[in-house]
Amino acid sequence: MILGNITRDPETRTTPQGTNVTTFSVATNLRWVNAAGERQDKAEYHNVVAWRKLADICAQYLKKGSKVYVEGRIQTRSWDDAQGQKHWRTEIVADNMIMLDKAGAPVVDNQIDEATSQVSPEAAAEETINVEEIPF
Question: How many CB atoms lie within 10 A of CB 61?
Fold first, then answer.
């Protein structure tokens, strides 16, 4: 689970099998006061991958600077580039996403009614979170 801001506009691609995948990055911030009483800030950047209908929704509604809550699993993958160099990438594969901007953005998650390709009302009602109730 991460709560942060989108650092770049989401990018959407389609796999050869026709499945949509959207990638974006989320920055989370840590603030503390060190022993000398100085305020310290540190940002961490997380790569996020959303698939299928959640990918479509992320691409449509998220933009750079948006505040978002993402829930998913961590996955590390590797590949070889054209020069034979091995690359590694650790990502969060999103299961749920909630837009937290004040503009009254809708609640979105991966519980999709496949027959109508829409977010089910029960799923939207379950995932409603009041920002003031978040314990962190």
Answer: 16
